[in-house]
Amino acid sequence: MMDELLICGSGASEAVPALFCTCDLCKEAWKRGGKDRRSRTAYQLGEEIRIDFGPDIMLHRERYGLHYENLKHLFISHPHRDNFTPIQVNYHIHGEEGPALLAEGDLTLHGTKPVLDQFKSNLTCDFSRMRMVLDELEEDFGTRTLENGIRFSFLWANHYCEGALNYIIEMPDSFTFFIGTDTGKFQEETWKILSNYQFDMMILDGTAGLLDIEEGGHMTAKQVLSSVERMRKEGIVKDSTRLITNHFAHCAKMLHSDLEAFYLPHGIEPAYDGMKVALKKN
Ligand SMILES: [Zn+2]
Ligand SMILES: [Zn+2]
User: Fold this and answer.
1) Separation of 103 CA from ligand 2 center, angstroms?
2) Model-level pTM greater than 0.90?
3) Ligand nearest the Cα atom of residue 180
4) Nearest C-alpha neighbor of 64 from the set 4, 118, 22, 108
5) For the chain, how many structural domains are there in total?
6) Is the pLDDT at 48 greater than 90, yes or no?
7) Which domain CATH number covers 137?
């Protein structure tokens, strides 16, 4: 369904409970289950559009009944291992020389050069047989309009690697939303771009939770609040804008109930695996 966004995963790189971890938060997350179990962050928009394709793609497929054979656009925000598992894309063709397995048409992989380089260096099969198109996103604030009229714009994230992007997505009915789940504090250039918009929904990076860091590739809970405060002041968000925070790390020491206690009074919802967000104006 194109009128909702599925939040397939809501955890940071190591998931929650984190792999191999025995910290208190992970032990408690095991006990509580439910919204405290978080797979790696990724998003699905209808059958055809996927944002990030990390190590939990199989889990997501089983849990949500996703059919990747129908994908037409794969947007990879950046080349970190929780966002992209390029080796899995090789299953696009049967064996090493077999036919491509997509239902129909081609799959376009949209990403910056580091993402495409990572894809190429993990190829185990002949790319010319893959029915894939590579779309290199070069310029800051580039845009792509898809065949169904959905428009993606890209802006640089303040993250730990080259070529990391956040997205502004405009639906054909003008519903406009933002996905920025891997970024530290917004730079002034980013604020300049954001100030040209009034979003209907925003997903912000809440990775660092209660950690005491000022400058990093992720936002702390406090930084989410101060970003939202500035957005409200600048009219980037309005009263009816749905605000969501996502990509939670076990080391940030917030269980789902802590996230709710912290964020809900400020009109911000913490995400969880399987959350569906309606893409309709309030
Ligand atoms: Zn842990
Ligand atoms: Zn990352």
Assistant:
1) 31
2) yes
3) 2
4) 4
5) 1
6) yes
7) 3.60.15.10
